[in-house]
Amino acid sequence: MADALISNVVEQLFNILNHQAQELKRTLGVKNEIKNLSSKLEKIREVLADAEKRSFKDNGIKLWIEDLKDFSYEVDDVLDEWRTRTLRHQIESPEVSRSSFLPMWCIQFKKFVVHRDIAKKIKELDSTLDRITKEKDQFKFDYASVTHTCAASYSDHQELMRVTTAFDMAASDIQGRKSDASALISKLVENSGNGNGPAVISILGAGGIGKTTLAQLVFGNEQIKAHFEEKVWICVSSPFNLFDIAKAIVESTTKSSTNLSQLQLLLEKIQSTLSGKRFLLVMDDVWTEQDEEWNPLKNSLKDGLPGSRILVTSRSERVARMMGSVYLHQLHLLSNSDAWLLLSRIAFSGRREEDCEKLKDIGQKIAQKCKGLPLAARVMGSLLRFKYTKYDWQNVLDNKIWELEKVVKNLFPHLYLSYNDLTPKMKQCFSYCAVFPKDYVIEADKLIRIWMAQSYVTVESEGRELFEGLAMRSFFQDLEKDATDSNIIIYCKMHDIVHDFAQFLTRNECYSIDQHEDKVGIKNLRHLSWPRTRGNMNLTASICDVGKLRSFFAQDLSLTQLTPDLFNGLKSVRVLGLHGCVLVELPKEIGNLLHLRYIDLSWSNVKELPDAICSLYNLQTLDLERCNGLSRLPKGIGNLINLRHLNIRHTFSLEMMPQGITQLPQLCRLSKFIVGKESCKLGDMEKLNQLKGDLSILFRCDLNNAADVEEAEKAELRNKKHIKELWLVFNQGVDVGIDVMEALKPPAELQTLKFNSYKGAHFPSWITLSLDNLRSLTFYGCLNCSSLPPLGKLPSLETLEISRMKELRYVGSEFLGVAEVGAVAFPKLKKLSFFSCGKWEEWEDFKEEATIIIMPCIRELKLQHCTKLKTVPHHLLSRPESLNIFNCPSLKVE
Predict the structure, then answer these.
(1) What is the pLDDT of residues 73-122, one digit of tens each?
(2) Which residues have CB under 8 Å from 793's CB, separation 6+?
(3) d(CA 344, CA 360)
(4) If we measure between CA atoms, which residue out of 595, 580, 632 comes closest to residue 611?
(5) Nearest-angstrom CA–CA distance, 309 and 296
(6) Strand, coil or helix: 219
(7) Are the C-beta atoms of residues 600 and 576 closer than 8 Å to each other?
């Protein structure tokens, strides 16, 4: 991790020397000092591999590395401060120079003072590095050649991309556990009474042995699905937070979020929801041994039908006994043969059989060193996938790390071996994840944006490659893939032991209060997570030096804790996560946080952002999702020239957006674009061709004249080729003419399209003429449309939802869009839904003939609240796997 940090600093120093040498000499007078810093740090990089290896046994070396990292952070802060103040001067000086009360000599003097201050800091750092270099020499480190980090990363990414599609990680998880699964399923479905409540069955075993994997295997079993009316999965972990657990159960059973804020109300809701149902509740990773924490929840579950079950996973038999388990299933270590099968399935993926045979003997010996732990076998298999020769495999087997007692006891050597094989940037990105609490659901894109804010990666594509590489090496698990692209991971978690390992690596840098409640006064803490469960803690007095923090995640903080002093203190912060905080207005002092690159205010009560936020010229991400009270964005937002992600999704009080948004050169994610009389025009979107992902265009005013058509054409929506989801939303009463809609032709690459409350009588023709890649289409509240376009033409359409089309009366053959011999209407459609079409009476009974094929892939048909509908094509009633007809009283189904 120190290598990546130093590499980043060295790269900055080289860039400064190459591109700003004259300014260094003229205004700072520190060109030699910059050159000395880069030269000395490059020399130190050559011994870091040996230093980090020896730090396990030598506490002096460990302290030296900590001192070196602390120094590198200081250098990074100073260089970033210089760049930022220079950028600020360039942006602000034109306005200031025109001021009648601030003469030019005053501006130049101010610039000189800033540069003199930076020069002083650089000279002090050069002196400090002399001391660190002299200390290095006393350890007599071995020197190693250093490959430039960027080149190494590129090479590694190329290797990753070659094997990405060859292996499905989830397929290997169940090796050697079929008999365990069978025994558990039998216990769960056996016919026995529930007495005073659902019977508790526990899976016990050491960390990394596969308890959660086994529970997941059972949870997804078809027999279990058929046996239980309700199934709920809850991650418990430590500490045992009864309120969060109860809330999660309520939201899982009701399939919606809840506003209940009192524990008793939640428990009563659980009792009423599960009463009279046979349910299965899985409580994964339970640690508490206190029955007073468990009993309130247990009592709320007592009214389930006989046969209801609670399945618990835990490392402790005392936990299982406290919960009243009627059956304890002890999970044993894998046999050496099963461990080898699991390891080899991953390691040999995509290889020729003769190559595998040459490596088999060594691989079996490595599998034995995994000591029967599935997690160890999986991690080692992921490591060996990238080792192609017998020599490389033998090096893994012979590595001295297996012999280090401390590593074997605390870390598991397989994790350290796999970690050691990562590039410096990958090590840095992985280690950072220690800041999140255990069982935290990691959103991949959000994590990548945070890595960018910390300068671990420079662009999203680089971050995505690093993330995928870590996932392929089994550092992440529970991977949730994109429904439209199975190669893209959206969410993931870290295994508890992998999380423990990351915390060990960053024990003096990353700190989640949730996990270390008694540990205080960490000297060089850089990244802090402060969950709401510890909301009353005095941060400044008990935890760390706030001024060194580079990440500060604090959920649901109170007004008394969000003080101007706190914002003034966070002088090095890059990432500020204030999800769900109660403050109504951000203090203007936030403008002093010149290093800040990432702000998360999602789900907070903030109503207004101070103009001072517009001086954060390094800001890359501003997340305002669900800030329902937010009324406006600052007029000067156009000054945020590095802003890449602006999330204003579900900001319902936001009426307009400043013109400056359309001038942001780096903006690639804009969740919503508001068109209105006092807001932007459609034509203002012209330069936003770099937008990616999803975009919602909200129409707040009528657009139906020639000038509006011209604005729509100027928007050049068709050129925004990276937009994959488009949502067109029309305010109540807003009229947008069909000519304007025709001019808003979206890119051919679009995959998802939604119309919400469209008032026109006809849909634009481009829906069926140019969207060959469209996979999902929704018409919601299109009240004046009496007919549907020929949607059967869409070759890629998989999901079609039509809701609240009140003027729709008839669906005929034109809906199919095809008539020629051999044609297929809706060739890929899987899900078709009609909701609340109150005047719809007839759906023509299309007679499928040999010449025309209709909806060959249909799996799900929903017809709900279509009260006048009388006919439906017969072949559609018989073909879908799922047929859901509700409140369609006029429809006669034979």
Answers:
(1) 999 999 899 889 888 877 876 554 444 444 443 444 455 555 778 888 88
(2) 768, 817, 818, 825
(3) 8
(4) 632
(5) 17
(6) helix
(7) yes
b/e per residue 307-333 (b: at least 16 CB within 10 A): bbbbbbbbbeeebbebbbbebebebeb
Cut 0.85: pTM above it: no
Neighbours of 613 (CB within 10 A): 22
Higher pLDDT, 315 or 146: 315
**553-574: per-residue pLDDT in tens?**
987 776 666 677 778 889 999 9
Rounded CA gap, 376 and 373, in Å?
5
Q: In 3D, which of 65, 60, 36 has the Cα closest to residue 48?
A: 65
| Residues β-bridged to residue 433 | none
Nearest to 156 by CA among 429, 525, 536: 429
Find all residues with CB under 8 Å of 5, minimum gap 6, and list them.
Answer: 69, 72, 73, 76, 428
Beta-sheet strands, E only, within 351-396: none
Query: For 469-506, b where at least 16 C-beta lie within 10 A, e where not — what string?
Result: bbbbbbbbbbeeeeeeeeeebebbbbbbbbbbbbbbbb
In angstroms, the CA 160 to CA 157 distance is: 5
- Amino acid making up residue 798: E
Would the CA dihedral through 205, 208, 214, 219 be positive or negative?
A: positive
Residue 719 neighbours by CB under 8 Å, 6+ apart: 689, 747
- For residue 743, what are the CA distances in angstroms to 713, 714, 724, 756, 777? 5, 9, 19, 18, 19
Length of the chain as a residue count = 894
For every residue of 587-643, which 3-state class applies, written as one string? Answer: CHHHHHCCCCCEEECCCCCCCECCHHHHHCCCCCEEECCCCCCCCCCCHHHHHCCCC
Helices 104-137 and 31-45: angle between axes, nearest 10 degrees = 30
Q: Strand (E) positions, 341-447?
A: 442-443
- Integer Cα distance of 552 and 53 in angstroms: 30
Q: What is the largest CA-CA distance in the chain?
A: 90
Which of 760, 856, 870, 756 shows the shortest CA–CA distance to 802?
Answer: 756
Q: 3-state class of 797 per DSSP?
A: coil
User: pLDDT category, 406, cuts 50, 70, 90?
Assistant: low
3-state secondary structure of 825: strand
Alpha carbon dihedral 129, 130, 136, 141, in 10-degree steps, equals 90
Residues 6+ apart with CB under 8 A from 94: none
Whole-number CA gyration radius for the chain: 31
Residues 6+ apart with CB under 8 A from 121: 78
